[in-house]
Amino acid sequence: MTVHFEDRPDVGGKLFRLDWLLPVLIGVLGLIGVLAILSATNGIWERGAIQHAVRFGAAFIGMIIVAMIDIRFWYAVAYPAFLAALVLLLGVEFFGINVNGSVRWLDLGFMRVQPSELIKPAVVLALARYYHDLPSWRVSDPFGLIGAMLIIGIPMALVLRQPDLGTSLLIGATGIALIFLAGVSWRIITLGSILALVSLPFIWQFGLRDYQRSRVLTFLDPARDPAGASYHITQSKIALGSGGLSGKGYLQGTQRQGGYVPENRTDFISTVIGEEFGFIGSIGLLAVYIAVIAACLRLSLQCKAVFSRMLILGLSITFTLYIFINLGMVMGLLPVVGVPLPLVSYGGTVVLVVMGSFGLMLSAHLHTSSLLPRSD
Amino acid sequence: MAKSRKSRQAVEAKSDAQMTRRTAILALGGIGGFGIIGGRLYQLQIAESENYLALSEENRFNYQTVLPSRGIIRDRHGEPLASNTLDYRIDLVSEQIDDLDLTLKQLGDIINLSEGEIKRIRRDVKRRPDFVPVTVKDHVDWDQFAALNMRVHALPGIVPTAGEGRTYPRDAVFSHITGYVGKANDRDIERDDDPLLLQPAFRIGKVGVEQAMDVPLRGQGGRLKVEVNARGRVVREWPDPSDAATPGQDVWMTLDAPLQRFTAEQFGDDSGGIAVVDVMTGELRTLLSMPTYDANLFVSGLTQADMDALNNDERRPQYNKVLSGGYAPASTYKMAVMLAALESGLVDPDRRIFCGGKVKLGNRDFHCWRSKTGHGAMNMRDSLKQSCDTYYYEISQVIGIQAIADMARRLGLGQSYGLNIGGERDGIVPDPGWKRDRLGSGWRMGDTLNASIGQGFVLATPLQLAVMTARLANGSQAVSPSLYAGFDRDSFASLNIDPDHLRLVQDSMWSVCEEPGGTAFRPNGLGIAGLDMAGKTGTSQVRGISRAERATGVLRNDELPWKYRDHSLFVGYAPYDRPRFAVGCVVEHGGSGAGRAATIVRSVLGEALRRDGLGARTDAGAERTAL
């Protein structure tokens, strides 16, 4: 297939036509992240806040560049990108380096990448293209279903082996949401739900590792391990709860100063915001996130092509699930799985991947008039 | 299968509409999800906020364990045998340190840090969480501690602290008694659920009195309320007097520290054990094993070099010979044989038995120590005075081994006394039952002959020999030793031995020391005018002498290597007419009993009496029934 690009990319015009609401909201989240990391590191810029700001800035520029590139290019590279991510994931299987007991990283010499982060947008890209290419009457037939299942299932299995239960479930949930959006029949949805419920005990028995089972059990019964996993949750709830309505004030959080909440620079960053800015701050943060997601939905509704819509919806579903899982975990509603709070938590690959995803969404929206091939 | 453009558009429009509808369904789900998150935030931060605020205050305050002062171990006069000194130590908190190399280098300029110490510090820093203090150095001397305190503001993360450390007298003569303290190991912690054991600076008794009396010595920990900030670091203390630690109780020993020191000086470089016991009360005035070791070394942790030096010393400094050392009592056992013979009524003490230097039993010769000439005709008193082996070979065959063994046990041999210090050995008083149980073989007459002169299977500790002597001297009570002062103990059981028989034994023991011809006779005796002593020598063979050697007499005992020489034994008491102290003494490889051991005991008894006002008893003990 050949892809035609504009002979003279009209960068200035595109920048003007770009939907700027989303980048602005993202910028606000980045600012919140930098300030929260600064507080989590006792006001010392060098312990992460600067790095986060620099990476965020670079990723922001990257996002705009991704947005400028024609959606037809992204359509063209959807499958190759998916395959490349799969290869990297397989590489982890053989050449992965062990960090903190999990094998999730690849050392490329100049940098370490975490293929399980890359695979998330890659699965969405592949599924979006898959459903774009698939005639709508085939969505519910075995052919259509099996293809989608493979695109979702293979990376899920590889990620689960690392082991990374959180990411694996995230991929699965996003994938299922996309199948649902593609219009699979309610009959199959019902059947699938029943099948999932029936297979739960087997997954519990054979699919999970001991520590993963113990995390879930600890979540259901915190008294099992008061000094271990439930310590995180207890301290995190104390930090949030003691913030009250308006919080203890910026850089004033005693829980944070006491270092009682572990990982408060990364996965538990929202405890810092909750303690120092209270309920108002927490709801405020939530509101910015809701605004980001609403902006994404708006972009998707303004798109014509299935590829574009599914790309935007899939990526924003991943983003939303990130937020749910992270906040649910911090508040003791879900078991502790290592999922960062996107754009606010300290972390390199995640910022790059999330910002790249927003770049793709913006590109899809910006190039909505670019005609994508459609098979019959 | 091309469809018409129209129908395709219709299908697409239908599918678009469906996707929009389903997007709305997912959006509804999202709204629900955010609703749950918001509700939970309301619950945590508004509804239950006060509760969590209280919990967060609790987090800010913490209780630190305050270690109790360990009780002091004292001698009978109150002199400390184990006490506490201010101990300066330096800790390091790695989370407050940016450059460990630099800090260690700066620290090394102020206090001495060896390569090994630096290596251990680095290892500890790596192994522990950043906020847990790591010991840089224990037992820092005051000069270095002061120098460090002057510059500590420039060394963030370095924490000098003053605590208490255990210390033992430098002359080390109480090490086997006091034992020492050390860090609790995993087994200790499993056995004992006192949370104090988890404190890195806490020490528990490892051996000796420190271990036996560990619980009363330990005391109870207190606590200190502290305000902690980042990573549990203390920012303020909130002391409350009712939370103070309860110091451990002092433990008083019956020992007489100056006498113990004097005794150690008499031993010099020799190896062995000696016990001085009060004939009336059983209180131990001296309980000494030589050579000793420095218990202080164990408190801070022994270096490999120290350990090797201790382990490779052929005189075995760590071995508590006075309580645990089993020695053939040799001729000091003869009093038991003699008393058994008298009590049996089978032997007339005046009847003379001829010693020609050896006794034939079957085709075996049993030699007297004076094997060349023999002692000639001996009555019972002379046989003890000159320690004639032949006499005992003969009478033991008459009275039998069981009578001997029974008497030995009545005199306190073959048993431990429950001193509550650890390491006490039972020794061995052999009889046919014992041999059957332990060796699975029958008793032979030759065994009886060997036992009759305290050789063969018989084993006794120096403490048991002292107790035997105290019972012989006391004459009426089965004196039992004690080491802890202030113990109300029941009066001793009666010895239940005919006083006339005991008097003959005592008189014979007097003749050993005070009559010319006695094996331990010295013209000026104790060296204290008007006071006589009584005793018995013993020479215990370590290595059998071959027939050839005996024939040629080429090798004198002191020509053999140290470890093959005979043990020198002596038991004695004084004053003879009003017994006050009894002593049992073994000098390992010290040669004949008349030589080394008797000399030591003579001067120790003299010193003990001098320290006691020459035996001028004024307390209740003087009321003892006259013999």
UniProtKB/TrEMBL annotation, chain A:
Topology of this chain in the membrane: Multi-pass membrane protein
Domain of life according to the entry: Bacteria
Main location, first listed in the record: membrane
Compartment(s) where it occurs, according to its Swiss-Prot or TrEMBL record: Cell inner membrane; Membrane
EC identifiers of the protein: 2.4.99.28
Pathway annotation from the record: Cell wall biogenesis; peptidoglycan biosynthesis
Reaction(s) the record says it catalyses: [GlcNAc-(1->4)-Mur2Ac(oyl-L-Ala-gamma-D-Glu-L-Lys-D-Ala-D-Ala)](n)-di-trans,octa-cis-undecaprenyl diphosphate + beta-D-GlcNAc-(1->4)-Mur2Ac(oyl-L-Ala-gamma-D-Glu-L-Lys-D-Ala-D-Ala)-di-trans,octa-cis-undecaprenyl diphosphate = [GlcNAc-(1->4)-Mur2Ac(oyl-L-Ala-gamma-D-Glu-L-Lys-D-Ala-D-Ala)](n+1)-di-trans,octa-cis-undecaprenyl diphosphate + di-trans,octa-cis-undecaprenyl diphosphate + H(+)
Transmembrane region(s): 20-41, 53-75, 81-103, 139-159, 165-181, 188-207, 277-299, 311-337, 343-364
Keywords on record: Cell inner membrane, Cell membrane, Cell shape, Cell wall biogenesis/degradation, Glycosyltransferase, Membrane, Peptidoglycan synthesis, Transferase, Transmembrane, Transmembrane helix
Annotated family: Belongs to the SEDS family. MrdB/RodA subfamily.
HAMAP family, per the entry: PGT_RodA
Purpose: Peptidoglycan polymerase that is essential for cell wall elongation.
PANTHER family: CELL CYCLE PROTEIN (PTHR30474), PEPTIDOGLYCAN GLYCOSYLTRANSFERASE MRDB (PTHR30474:SF1)
Protein's name in the database: Peptidoglycan glycosyltransferase MrdB
TrEMBL record, chain B:
Ranges where the Penicillin-binding protein transpeptidase domain occurs: 272-604
InterPro entries: Beta-lactam/transpept, Beta-lactam/transpept-like, PBP_dimer, PBP_dimer_sf, PCN-bd_Tpept, Penicillin-binding_protein_2
Transmembrane segments: 24-42
Keywords: Carboxypeptidase, Cell inner membrane, Cell membrane, Cell shape, Cell wall biogenesis/degradation, Hydrolase, Membrane, Peptidoglycan synthesis, Protease, Transmembrane, Transmembrane helix
Location of the protein in the cell: Cell membrane; Membrane
Domain of life: Bacteria
Record-given protein name: Peptidoglycan glycosyltransferase
Gene responsible for this protein: pbpA
Natural source organism: Algimonas porphyrae
Entry annotated with the keyword Cell inner membrane: yes
Penicillin-binding protein dimerisation domain sequence ranges: 68-237
Major localization listed first in the record, in broad terms: membrane
Membrane topology per record: Single-pass membrane protein
